[in-house]
Amino acid sequence: MRPYWRPAANSSGSALGAVPAASGSERAGLVESIRPSLQAAGPVRLAMGLVVAAALVAAGYRMIYGLGAATHLSDAWPWGLWKILGVVAGIPLAAGAFVVAAWVHVFRHHGYESLARPAVLAGFIGYLTAIASLFVDIGQPHRIWHPIVMWQPHSVLFEVCWCVILYTTVLALEFSPVAFEKLGWQRAGRIVQHFIAPIAGAGATLCVLHQSSLGSLFLIAPSRMSPMWYTPWLPLIFFVSSVAAGLAVLQLLAWVADRVYGQPVAESIRAGLARGLTGVLVLYLAVRLGDWSLRGTGPWRTSWGLEGALAWAELVMGIVLPLALLLAAGVRAGGQEWRVAAAAFTAAGVLLHRLDTGLTSMREAAWLPYVPSAIEWLVMAGMVCAGILAYDWVARRLPLFEHGREAAR
Amino acid sequence: MAVSQPERVVGRRRLLRWGAALAGAAAARAATGAAGRTARAASVVDGQAWAMLVDITQCVGCRSCVFACQEENGWKGDPEGQQLDGERWTAVREVAVKGSEEPRFVRTECFHCLQPSCADACIVGALRKTAEGPVVYDAGKCIGCRYCMIACPFQVPRYQWDQTFPLVAKCDFCADRIAAGKQPACSEACPTGATLFGRRDELVEQARARLASEPDRYVQHIYGLEEAGGTSWLFITDVPFEQLGFARVGTTPPPQRTRAWMQRVPAIAVGIAGLLAAAHVIEGRGGNHA
Ligand code: SF4
Ligand code: SF4
């Protein structure tokens, strides 16, 4: 068995025989230099594995004893952590995949190709995680296939469900050439490559639909939600914020590729991501401010309470601060740290907005409090860890990063 | 064939009536806009569908309706409970009222909306408004996503949290009994007539008559006449509805908001796909770039 810490760059690169000697030895040197940090990451992986194992036990408990025993969900809180954090907040974090796939294959910005594989892999794992989250959350998990045959075209959830099924298939297709490359199935890989533009285009279309529809889900519940977050603009806000979160996660993935896998991403790409995020954040800011002022609400209109504080945090921590960091990154040396920080704040801000929309805003209407149970947290943490471990596992075995290098060369 | 004079007059009158009806319908449609087009099972003639009138002034809090409901459906939950739950599809809440010695007793259960949010939300179509009036639930379809619980403006649907594979629980207006020509168990059991079963338009008349007969006593509002687009259950009271815990839901049927979105989805899909295809072609002309 391979040592758990050995990076794929070493083995799969040579296994493919595609890496020229010079860059190979260069890479070996790099690997030597980051080996200590990889070794240090060993216990982290182990710990994550333990969390996954514990989460599996917890999920088993939920499957045997039911939602009531395992969660703190109630008639007052029919949707909790698994639905809101695992699906409504989780899916925008995976939006980077459609953004970069469309940018590279539809808009033909092939310079970003080196980011496409990590992004698509992360997206694929993200969607599988969301589906897993849904699976433990619904009361009749064995009927999860029902929407495929029982159609209800007025239901926003039905539309989201179909888009997610189809888009997960698209992601699998988009990623398949990497697996084919590893397996040496050149022909299969070429066939997919031949149709990659329409595939990426279909994927982007599905994403525009369901990213916005995740917001439309809540349009049916106006009387249940706080006006701070209930707005007819929910679909627009959800779509714009998903692109922001997607770009932010791409920047974080680029950072991980460098720091964890020793595969630095070209400065032009990181700068491009930062430019893109700046533009989208400006748009997002305009949409949020416009929505609040047109409806005569907004954090500045409410007294300081939990709602006001959280809305301020969304605005300042999630939009204004990252914008400031990005602008600072543009004029300073060593801007990459600033960009990564901006990305982290952006992602956190979008996450917070989703939690507020799905949970905080329903506080008034609920007659009971809701604090997620230990099992809910554990299962959630297990899914996040499983996603990270899966990404790591694939990254160390499949040609995730080399491809772009070759294309760019 | 010659047509006699009176008949011709009748014919002309009928024509006029038709004309007036058509004009009225057109005006109503123009006035309601999208509302007229949305969210209604084609076969539901709301006025003729079955409905219920609850006169809160007449309820003495005996909970006969709750007992009858639980017996009808085979549940064993505590009938005294103030809240709905998986085994209590209707509950009677005791509400203390300012400036009155007597408390009020308020029945809650599914309102059987004319344009039910739960049915539009349901991902698999497990909930459905029938032409007879009840909003019924097909337990065999339900996946347990609980979107119906989020969507219901009155927060009615409950979940069997104590079950491993729980189902949604809510009043079904005794749809089986209605189909068999009987009235629901609760209205049959009500000793005071506080819960009255009948055709919706007749009950609306009845309610209006009661409000008019004692204008000083009754709050001049029929809850359910227009709330959330109208419901099959109607309520009248002598204490403001807000004080009794009735939700403020507005008159717009909530499904109208999601339907407006769902109607746009195909156009958005085609538009985005078209834009992407155009971009692909245009970008192709410039050759590859970073
Ligand atoms: S009251 Fe709620 S559960 Fe009953 S029909 Fe209306 S939306 Fe559905
Ligand atoms: S919980 Fe069941 S009835 Fe309610 S929306 Fe989901 S599938 Fe439909």
UniProtKB/TrEMBL annotation, chain A:
Compartments where found: Cell membrane
Principal location listed in the UniProt entry: membrane
Membrane topology annotation: Multi-pass membrane protein
Transmembrane feature ranges: 44-64, 84-107, 119-136, 156-175, 195-221, 233-257, 269-289, 309-331, 338-355, 375-395
PANTHER family named among the record's database cross-references: PROTEIN NRFD
Homology family: Belongs to the NrfD family.
Name of the protein in question: NrfD/PsrC family molybdoenzyme membrane anchor subunit
Provenance organism: Carboxydichorda subterranea
TrEMBL record, chain B:
Compartments, as annotated in UniProt: Cell envelope
Name used for this protein in its record: 4Fe-4S dicluster domain-containing protein
Keyword entries, A-Z: 4Fe-4S, Iron, Iron-sulfur, Metal-binding, Repeat, Signal
Keyword Manganese: no
CDD domains reported in the protein's UniProt record: HybA_like (cd10561)
Signal peptide per UniProt: 1-30
The keyword Repeat appears for this protein: yes
Organism lineage string: Bacteria, Bacillati, Bacillota, Limnochordia, Limnochordales
Source organism, top-level taxon: Bacteria
4Fe-4S ferredoxin-type domain ranges (all copies): 50-80, 133-162
Organism of origin: Carboxydichorda subterranea
